[in-house]
Write a structure and sequence with these properties.
2 copies of one chain form a homodimer.
Chain A (H helix, E strand, L loop, with lengths): L5 H19 L4 E2 L1 H6 L5 H9 L11 E2 H12 L5 E6 L3 H8 L8 E8 L8 E2 L2 E5 L3 H7 L4 E4 L3 H14 L3 E4 L12 E4 L2 H14 L8
Parallel strand pairs in A: 3-4, 3-7, 4-6, 7-8, 8-9
Antiparallel strand pairs in A: 1-2, 5-6
Helix pairs in contact in A: 1-4, 6-7
Chain lengths: 213, 213
């Protein structure tokens, strides 16, 4: 399992979205070729990606859409509700939480922490901002395994150390810094610059030259 | 060119990052198999993706790393500097701009706009927040073709209409809403929820069950 490359997991997310689109259009089955086509993957690539996780197809039928959706959700871990803690109630933290669809089905904000005494005690949506001293007890009590870090790059390493010691096993990191963690703590860093690259590609290719030379 | 599927463009970004890693490790050439391996793509997938954009390989040599980097940068449009305007100087806008690495080489923040009279005239980094009435003239004057929208979902459509009328041809949209634009205006919407899915996958697979059942 640990040999599955990162991009393959992104592809699982893309397959799931495509399957949900097919389901809304009342498709009951789909072939690997059809599933790959809309995303630009070959049927061999689709089959290879899914083979990492088991046997899904039915001979002469292809994939059953509903069944594959349930199995991919299980693979992605979104078939359950994850309590999540947020560290950092500044601009980025508030922006993320007000970003509709960020915490959708499958993720629930359980508590918010900030190191700034001026912020502690204030409201954050329906929650009260807690001091960092309460982090460990809270993570234990609510059985939290997942955290979102939206602190300064300077503070990020000490925060992730605290989280790891408290029992958190997955961190979504919005601080643009490399974090060192024990092997059983997984860090997912968000690369917003990638999104700009996708845009500049479209501009370069489709929308003509950007500026007079 | 317009038939290139979206995920293929993401893969071009991933290939570029991998090539830059190889370059730092002093590799001069790479095969499609080696390039694909670290990312979990087959050599056929790598060749297929690159074939969308032309002929890159050299018989008996593979790809020349430096040459392919330059050509992929050109494809992604990051071989030049794009002036960018930001609409929305609220939490998310400020958070994005303070996010180190978001606007890296290739992108330069040229102006910031907000509809809120209380924000207009305030400083935003080295810039002054401008009123929306100045948008059109500013976009013309600075020859801006790219914008980042960090406004409320309710305001997003009218903002993108203004931008399109002013001559902007690419929009990075952080407002979680579907935007209608003319065919020559490209919108890239950022899916932060995808990042959480990647994290929950890792948690589900690698880090044991999240909670007692």
């Amino acid at each position: 399992m640990q040999d599955i490359p990162g991009p393959a997991i992104y592809r699982i997310s893309f397959y799931l979205r495509q399957l949900e689109t097919l389901q809304r259009a009342s498709h009951e089955t789909v072939s690997s070729k059809e599933l790959g086509k809309a995303l630009g993957y070959s049927d061999a690539q689709v089959r290879k990606d899914l083979t990492y996780f088991g046997q899904f197809g039915h001979p002469g039928v292809g994939y059953r859409v509903e069944e594959l959706i349930q199995r991919l959700k299980k693979i992605l871990g979104t078939d359950r509700v994850w309590p999540v803690v947020l560290i950092g109630a500044g601009n980025l933290g508030r922006a993320l939480m007000s970003y509709k669809g960020f915490l959708r089905k499958g993720f629930q904000l359980a508590a918010v922490f900030d190191a700034d005494p001026a912020k502690v005690g204030r409201r954050f949506g329906e929650l009260e901002i807690l001091p960092m001293e309460k982090l460990q007890a809270c993570v234990h009590e609510l059985q939290v395994r997942m955290a979102i870090i939206a602190v300064t790059p300077e503070a990020a390493q000490s925060v992730v150390d605290l989280l790891a010691a408290a029992g958190v096993r997955g961190v979504l990191n919005f601080s643009p810094t490399n974090l060192k963690t024990p092997p059983d703590v997984y860090v997912q860093s968000v690369d917003l610059a990638l999104q700009l690259e996708q845009l500049s590609f479209r501009m370069s290719m489709g929308a003509g030259p950007p500026l007079a030379p």
